[in-house]
Amino acid sequence: MEEKYYKILDADGASALKKFDYRTYLPGGELGGEWLPKIENPSITNGGYYVTKYWNMWYSRGARIFEVECAGLVSDAGAGVEHQACCETFRFLRDVTARLEPSLAFDEPDCGEKCNTGVGNTGLYNTGTFNCGYYNAGTRNTGSLNLGDFNTGDSNSGMDNVGDSNRGSCNVGSRNVGHSNCGNGNIGSFNTGSFNRGNGNTGSFNVGSHNSGKWNLGSYNVGFFNTKEPPLMMFDKPAFVSRKDIRLPKWLNCRDPKAALKTATKAEIEAALALPNFDYEIFFGITGVSKADIDARLKQIAGDF
């Protein structure tokens, strides 16, 4: 079934944030409105027409809720509730305020312990506002028993979780303790997989950090059932130094090293040449910076004094 998207407008027909006047595009009766002018290459961060599946997250008292039809839809790819999406163009289908608004409790009914503390909740026993579900302490949760904001699921403690029983934020999955995990049962952060104990693992059942695979005990392993940290590879050879001791000079932390070389200092260039196993041919193949480029820059620096 196709998911419905909505647009929230102020009572005067303007968008709540941008204040764009949509009055000439509003539907007349049961007929949908005209399509908005097309915006090329929409994105969540760079613009487009913004719409949402969760109208209650953006609703404020007195606003109007419209169901819309979208084209060129771009969804929010981040973790957590899809707060909003954007599209190349859309048209208003119908005003659904009268149908949807009554589901929000703006007044405190005579319901004893069932009453919400806050307004705009769909459900009961909420402490906060605009929650869909029950027993939420926070705002704009879709689910129940959440402690925090913008959770989709139940029993989360944190923000922007998709799933259940997470303790942290921005998790996609369930029973994670940490942040930004994608999977289940992770203790740590930035894991992709399940039941990892550490950070930045890709795979499952790893104890350590930055492993790719399963059942590794240690860190930086690629594969399965490893217990030791493998040597650091640099320039296609083992470099028997600790990863924490490698410091790249500033010009090698730029997207275009060849352009950055033009302002690199002698010390920064020498720091690059001193990297373990430094190899001009490999370096050129990856960065586009040749030995001739480096020699020319060093000569230029020498001529400046």
List keywords for this structure.
12% helix; flat; three-stranded antiparallel sheet; alpha/beta; 5 helices; 305 residues
- Number-wise, the strands total 13
Q: Give average pLDDT, whole number.
A: 87
What sort of overall outline do the alpha carbons produce when their principal axes are compared?
flat
**Helix-strand category:** alpha/beta
- Work out the strand percent: 15-25%
> Biggest sheet, strands in spatial order?
1-3-6
Number of helices: 5
Order of helices and strands: EEEEEEHEEEEEEEHHHH
Distance between the termini: 72 Å
Helix content: 10-25%
What is the radius of gyration?
27 Å
**Stretches where pLDDT falls below 50 for ≥5 residues?**
none
Q: What characterizes the major β-sheet?
A: 3 strands, antiparallel
